[in-house]
Write a structure and sequence with these properties.
five-stranded mixed β-sheet, 5 strands, 6 helices, alpha/beta
Length: 202
């Protein structure tokens, strides 16, 4: 999980370890920032747990990294049990010019990343802001990445409100149910099938 997802830790059983990955600084970041951060994260993950199954989560920009980690781990022959994406939209359109500012660089990284196919189902938690901006992609683009489709949970809050009380508590309940820690397993609001990428984006 990225550092923001560590906010879920108090709502989970102690038997489920949560390892927060944050503050990774690349000395000489290249063109595909997401791939480089994902590779560095995998090194840290496998130093703690050499083999799967893995449960990977990411919030905001961390959702891009979580998706890339899951794809890479699968390509390495490892099993990813859960890919949890927290309010992250995949951008699969044209690659922009190299941006100058730091925030613009992060936003552009999702477009530059060469996305691989993820063989499982992605679990997506959307906030009320996202459906209004992504009417054409209800799975925020993850329906193109995950061959198992996307299970979508909607929470009526803002992007940053998702990891703050009271919605962080609700989010922790959803995650606990997904990990089998609750008898009342939460049901997604929407189940989306996998959608092949349009030919223009291959």
């Amino acid at each position: 999980a990225d550092g923001d997802v560590a906010a879920l830790r108090p709502g989970l059983e102690p038997a489920i370890p949560v390892v927060a990955l944050e503050g990774l600084v690349l000395r000489d970041p290249g063109y595909d920032l997401i791939s480089e951060i994902a590779a560095a994260c995998i090194d840290e993950i496998r130093a703690i747990q050499p083999h799967g199954p893995y449960r990977i989560a990411g919030f905001s920009f961390g959702g891009h990294v979580a998706g890339a980690i899951a794809c890479r781990l699968e390509a390495m022959g490892e099993r990813v049990e859960l890919l949890l994406i927290l309010d992250t939209a995949v951008r699969l359109d044209a690659v922009p010019l190299r941006p100058a500012g730091g925030m613009a660089r992060l936003m552009a990284a999702g477009r530059r990343h060469g996305w691989r196919v993820y063989g499982g189902r992605a679990t997506l938690v959307r906030t009320w802001e996202r459906p209004l901006r992504h009417l054409g992609t209800p799975g925020l683009g993850w329906e193109y990445i995950a061959t198992g489709g996307v299970a979508v949970f909607d929470l009526p809050t803002t992007h940053w409100g998702l990891i703050a009380p009271p919605f962080a508590d609700r989010l922790a309940e959803i995650v606990a149910g997904l990990l089998g820690q609750r008898l009342d397993v939460p049901q997604p609001d929407i189940l989306l099938p996998h959608t092949p990428l349009p030919d223009a984006l291959h």
